[in-house]
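[retry 2/3] RING-type E3 ubiquitin transferase: previous attempt timed out, resubmitting with same input.
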Amino acid sequence: MTESGEISEFGYIMELLARGKVTIKNIERELICPACKELFTHPLILPCQHSICHKCVKELLLTLDDSFNDVGSDNSNQSSPRLRLPSPSMDKIDRISRPGWKRSSLTPRTTTFPCPGCEHDVDLGERGINGLFRNFTLETIVERYRQAARAATAIMCDLCKPPPQESTKSCMDCSASYCNECFKIYHPWGTVKAQHEYVGPTTNFRPKILMCPEHETERINMYCELCRRPVCHLCKLGGNHSNHRVTTMSSAYKTLKEKLSKDIDYLIGKESQVKSQISELNLLMKETECNGERAKEEAITHFEKLYEILEERKSSVLKAIDTSKKLRLDKFQTQVEEYQGLLENNGLVGYAQEVLKETDQSCFVQTAKQLHLRIQKATESLKSFRPAAQTSFEDYVVNTSKQTELLGELSFFSSGVDVPEINEEQSKMYNNALINWHHPEKDKADSYVLEYRKVNRDEEMLSWNEIEVCGTSKVVSDLESNCNYAFRVRAYKGSICSPCSRELILHTPPAPVFSFLFDEKCGYNNERLLLNLKRDRVESRAGFNLLLAAERIQVGYYTSLDYIIGDVGITKGKHFWAFRVEPYSYLVKVGVASSDKLQEWLHSPRDAVSPRYEQDSGHDSGSEDACFDSQPFTLVTIGMKKFFIPKSATSANEPENRVLPMPTSIGIFLDYDKGRVAFYDMDHMKSLYERQVDCSHTMYPAFALMGSGGIQLEEPITAKYLEYQEDM
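[retry 2/3] RING-type E3 ubiquitin transferase: success.
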C-alpha cells in the first residue's frame, strides 16, 4: 500500500468519526482483544481476518506448548502429581522477541491454535508470528480512543530540556513529539526534514510503508483475492501466492472502500429500524424476565404442593407409628403387672398366701378353687414365657426408594416445546384473517399465543398484538384495509414457551368486504342456471336445451349469456368481494353493472341485445377499439382456466399479453365515489386489471355464464366459519 493510499484509508475512517457518524465512546466493543479482554496492543491480523494482541498470540502458543510438555511428563511419570503451570512469563515472551532468537526448549512447537474470536483453528505456518501483518489502522483507532479517554493527560515534548513543554505535533518520520519551538529547531525550512509528515500529538508511530512479512525488504503492492491479504511481487512470482489470483493494491483499495462505504451508509440509513429492533429486544428481555419470574413462582408452587403432600404423609406415618407403639407398650405394661403379681408378697402370690391362712374349710374351698385356676395359669405362663407384643417396627419402615428415584428425575415437562408451524394453505385473508397451524406435540401444549402486527412499507416495526388461543386456529378481526400483516404463533406448556413460528405475511383487501348473495328473482333463468339453497353458488346447465336447438346453428343461431346479479346494490363508498370460478367453466363473465343497464339486458330479447355486441363492454368484442369512454358496466372474461384482460387503448393488444392463468380466487374492488373498478388475484392480493366505470346509478355485482360453468362466492370468515372448518 502506498503512503498516500494508507493515509487516505485512515483519513476516511477518521472522517466518519469526526462527522459524528461513529462516536469513539460507542466503539469500545470493537477495540477489545478477544483474548485478554483489554484494548488492543500491537494487534496482529490472523489468517481468519480477526485481530489479536501480539503478546496474546505468543501467550497462546506458549501455553499450548507447555500443555504439550505437561502431557508428555504425565505419560512418562504417571506417579508424579499433576502440576498446574502458570501462564507463560513475560521473560519467555521477551526471549522470543529478541533478535537472533533460536529454537530452544522454550520455543513453542505449536503453530496451530484456536482463534479467540471465532474459535476456528488457525495455522501460522513455518514463519509463525513473523508471518502475520500488524493491524496499523486498528492500532491507530485504539490510540485515538485512548487519547479521547485521557483527554486531560497531555503528551509532552520529547526534545525539550527539563521541564518539558506540552507537545503540539508528532512527526511520523522521526517517531517523536515536539513543542512548537523544538519542531522549528529540528525541522527547519529548506531542509529534507521540513518535508516530514506530522500529525497531532500521539504516542502511536506506525511505519509509513507496509513491508512484506515474508520478504522483509519488499514493499506490499498487491492483494491476493484467494488468501485475502496483501502480498509483494516476490510472493506472486515464486512464493506461496504464485498460483493465486491477485489484483493491484489500488484496485483492492477502491473495491473494499466502496463496499465498506456502501455497507456503512446502509447501516446508518437503517438506524430507525435498528432502534426499533433494539426496542423489541428490550421488550423481549422484559418478557423473558417476567416469564422467568413466573416460571419460578410456578416451580415454587409445585414444590410447595410436594412439601404439603410430604408433610401430610409424614404426619400420617408418624401417627400410625405412635399408635402402634402405644398399643404395644400397653400390652407390655399389662404383662409386667401380671408377672409382678407372681412375686412373693405381691399381687396374686400374696393374695394366695393370705387365703392359705383361712381355717374354715368351707370358706377356703369356696375361694381356693378359682384361685387355684389362676395360679395354674400363671405357672403355665411362666413355663412358656412369650412377650405380649413385638418390639420391632419393621412393618413401619417407610420405603422411599421409588419416590427418591422419581424425585431425582424431577425436571420440567421437556427440554423445550416444539415450534408450531402455520399452515399457509389453510390460512386465508378476506373480511377477517383465518390463521391455522399445527403442532407436533398438540396434546402436550396447554395453550398458544398468536401474535400479529401491521408491516409498514417503510419497514417501521410495530409492536406485536397477542391473542391467547386454546386450539390450533384463530380468526383475527378489526384489521385495516389494504395493509400487510405478519402473523406468528408460539406454544406454551406451563411456563415453558416455544420459539416463535416462521412469520406468515397476508395482505388485507383494499376495501371492506361487501356481503351479498345471488338474486333468484331478477333475471334468474332457472332453466339454464342452478342456484343452491344458500344462494352463494350458481352453476350453468347448458347441454340438453342446446342439443334440441342444434339444427338452428347452421342458420346463425348463437348461444346467449345467462345473467345473475347480487341481491344488494351499491350507492357509495369502497367495496370488495371475492369468488371462485370452477376450473371446468367454459365461459364466465364477472364484474359490475348499473341498474339501468341490467334492466336493458334482462328485459330485452336475447337475440337482439347482448353484451357481446356492446361497445367497450369490457370483454372481447370486435368494436372495443373504437371507444374507450366510461360505461355503466365492466365485465371481464374467464374460462378454460384462463383470465382474459380486456383490450385497452394504452395496453398491447397481443393475445399473449392479455391472457393470464386463472387465479384460484378472484376479487373485485369497486370505488363508487371515484368510478373505479379493479380485478384482483386473491391468492397474492394483486391487481390484474382496472378501469373507469360510470357509477351514476346503483351498481350491482354482475355475473354471466355460457356453457358449463360454476361460480362460488367466498364465504365471510367468522367464528361460525371457524367452527365449520374444524368440524370438517
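[retry 2/3] RING-type E3 ubiquitin transferase: Confidence is low (pLDDT under 50) at residues 1-14, 16-22, 71-108, 605-628.
[retry 2/3] clearing retry counter.
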